[in-house]
Structure formats: structure tokens, C-alpha cells
Design brief:
Blueprint (H helix, E strand, L loop, with lengths): L7 H9 L11 E4 L6 E2 L2 H7 L11 E4 L5 E3 L14 E3 L4 E3 L6 E4 L4 E4 L7 E4 L4 E4 L31 E3 L5 E3 H7 L17 H13 L10 E5 L6 E5 L8 H7 L12 E2 L3
Antiparallel strand pairs: 1-2, 1-3, 3-4, 5-6, 7-8, 9-10, 11-12, 11-15, 13-14
Organism: Aspergillus oryzae (strain ATCC 42149 / RIB 40)
Protein name: DNA, SC005
GO molecular function, one term: zinc ion binding
């Protein structure tokens, strides 16, 4: 992988000279391996063509400063100008955005947003994805957890340019999809486990149930329930407002009141 950086003092001046599109800042266009047409990036290509641009197969680039077509590289062979601050020869990725860091993960096979492996990210062999070092010993492993479609929008998450987050249960979802989904639901759309701290809400529900007792003829009515959070079956007193799992309550008593799990974020370029 080829990669070069410029001094911070020159970064602002260099960035102002950069061209590109609304998706990427760069001084080059790339030639689609399939249709041989020139586009600033794969997103611009895919918006107007009936096929996808396979970026790693890119062989040629076009310098937008001098107009010279040439094999993909970081520096123009004609004018000698730098095509981008970050260049990955494996992914054929050019990027001039100085507001973010990018690194290539050989295990993922793609470039990701971050300072790099061993710095702020590590690659989990079970999850098959890069995760923040801060949760290396505490995250919940789910095999190939991001090599699937987002349960809300249906887009493939492993190579998605959108930020992907992990819910408390370990399942992944687009951050923007979770933000909208959580306005109307507190359960994982895949496994139905609770994904946010609902203690205050459930306490209010308990008080409401106590203030509205069932009619006398239903005082001894029981219900068999299956708890989505702990996976246990139990028999509890029936109430039309809600049914509480006593087993799950016992487990939660051992945890902190503030049991929100950190959301792990990664991005793909």
C-alpha cells in the first residue's frame, strides 16, 4: 500500500487546491474497469450507470490538474502534482479530506476511517471487523456481525459508507437508521432484546399497574411468558398493561443503574 502525508502547515493550502465531487476531495478521476468511462468516484458512477464500479479493479486515473491519463498512482507522471494526501494502492482510494484519518486493514480488505490498527482500532477475528481498542475486552462477539444487510434500510453494512454501530445485544445497524428507529421502539429489530436503558420507563409502568389492579375474578390469573432479554420462560401474574420477567429483573439487579453500553463506531471509505 502506498501512502503519503504532507505537513500540517501546508494542509490548508493543499486542500484548497483540491478538486473532486460531493463524495470525495481529490485531484483525479478514475476509469471504470467495466465501461471504461471516467468518473470522480464510484458513487458518481453508480448514480448514472446500470452497473457498479469495482474500485479495486481500477487501473487508470486522469489527473484533473493537467488532464493526463495514466496508470493509477499518487503523483501525476505528467505535472508531478500530488493527486491526494491519502492513497491506497489496494483499494484504489484517493482522499484529500484533512478532517479525518484513514487506514487500510488487510483483514477487512478495505480502507476504514481511523488512525490505524494498534492506535485507535483493532481487528476482531470473530466479528471480522475493525473495532475501537477501548472495547477490545468488553465487546460482544457475533461472527461476521457486519457482513449482512442493515435490518432497517437493507443496505450491505460491511462496505457501507454510512456509519455502522453495534447495539447492546451485539447486532449491527446503520447509526442514522438506529436514530430514527429508536424514536418508536426500544428493542433490537433482529432479536427483540432491549437496546436502551428502560429502567425509568418500566418503573413508571410498575406504578401504573399497581394503581390499576385487575378485577377480583382475575386476581389469580397467571401467564406464561418468554423473555426476549434473558431468554427464559416463566409464569407471572397477568395484567393487561404489561407482564414483567422476574428472572430478568434479578439479573439486572447485579448491574449498574446506568447500564447503557457504549456504541462502537466504524466507517468504510
Amino acid at each position: 500500500m502506498e501512502q503519503a502525508h504532507i505537513d500540517d502547515t501546508d494542509a490548508e493550502e493543499f486542500e484548497e487546491a483540491c478538486l473532486g465531487c460531493r463524495h470525495y476531495k481529490r485531484n483525479v478521476k478514475l476509469q471504470c474497469y467495466a465501461c471504461k468511462k471516467w468518473y470522480t468516484c464510484r458513487f458518481c458512477h453508480d448514480e448514472v450507470e446500470d452497473h457498479h464500479l469495482d474500485r479495486p479493479k481500477t487501473e487508470n486515473m486522469l489527473c484533473m490538474l493537467c488532464g493526463h491519463a495514466q496508470p493509477a498512482t499518487q503523483f501525476c507522471r505528467q505535472c508531478g502534482e500530488q493527486s491526494s494526501q491519502y492513497y491506497c494502492n489496494i483499494c484504489k482510494l484517493w482522499d484529500n479530506d484533512t478532517s479525518k484519518s484513514i487506514y487500510h486493514c488487510n483483514d477487512c480488505g478495505i480502507c476504514r476511517i481511523g488512525q490505524g490498527l494498534g492506535k485507535d482500532f483493532f481487528h476482531c477475528k470473530t466479528c471480522c471487523v475493525c473495532l475501537p481498542i477501548s472495547i477490545e475486552n468488553t465487546h460482544r462477539c457475533i461472527e461476521r456481525s457486519t457482513q449482512c444487510d442493515c435490518p432497517i434500510c437493507g443496505d450491505y453494512m460491511f462496505t457501507s459508507p454510512e456509519t455502522v454501530v453495534f447495539m447492546r445485544c451485539g447486532h449491527s445497524i446503520h447509526q442514522k437508521c438506529l436514530s430514527e428507529y429508536s424514536k418508536n421502539s426500544y428493542r433490537c429489530p433482529i432479536c427483540s432484546k432491549t437496546i436502551t436503558n428502560m429502567e425509568s420507563t418500566f418503573r413508571n409502568l410498575d406504578r401504573t399497574i399497581q394503581s390499576q389492579p385487575m378485577p377480583a375474578e382475575f386476581n389469580d390469573t397467571k401467564a406464561l411468558i418468554y423473555c426476549n432479554d434473558c431468554g427464559a420462560k416463566s409464569v407471572v401474574r397477568y395484567h393487561w398493561l404489561g407482564l414483567r420477567c422476574d428472572i430478568s429483573d434479578d439479573d439486572n439487579d447485579d448491574e449498574d443503574d446506568d447500564d447503557e453500553e457504549k456504541i462502537d463506531i466504524f466507517g468504510h471509505r
